[in-house]
Specification:
The radius of gyration is 13 Å and the shape is elongated. A hairpin with a 5-residue loop joins strand 1 and strand 2. With 79 residues, the protein is α+β, with helices and mostly antiparallel strands. Strands 1-2 form a two-stranded antiparallel ribbon. It contains 2 helices and 2 strands; from the N terminus they run H-H-E-E. It has a single domain, classed as Eukaryotic RPB6 RNA polymerase subunit, CATH 3.90.940.10. Keywords: DNA-directed RNA polymerase, Transcription. This is DNA-directed RNA polymerase.
Length: 79
């Protein structure tokens, strides 16, 4: 099965949630410098597929599927 492709709406939501978690003191899942911004840490976590969040997508009538961010194709958001 192909990797599900993350939408721009899912990216925006995950970005906001994860950056807020980092600002609130949650430990990053990548090595980082003390003066590195939360935005840069988020981008590196996204590249390394280490973001500990899931996206819930509707799937048919009254059903949904949880997709870990680490299993998604995010190439379009990485420069």
């Amino acid at each position: 099965m192909d990797e599900p492709i993350m939408t721009k709406y899912e990216y925006t939501r995950i970005r906001g949630i994860r950056i807020q978690q980092l600002i609130d003191g949650m430990q990053p899942f990548v090595d980082y410098d003390k003066d590195e911004s939360e935005e840069n840490i988020f981008i590196r976590e996204l590249k390394d597929k280490k973001i500990p969040l899931k996206i819930t997508r509707p799937c048919g009538y009254n059903k949904s599927v949880d997709i870990p961010v680490s299993d998604m194709n995010v190439e379009r958001f990485i420069n």
